[in-house]
Amino acid sequence: MDLLSSVPIWKLGLYFVVAICQDFVLTLNWRAIAKEKILMAVSTSFVITILSFWVLYNILADLDANRSVISVLVYSAGIATGTFMAMKFKLKDSK
Question: What is the pTM of this model?
Answer without folding.
Answer: 0.74
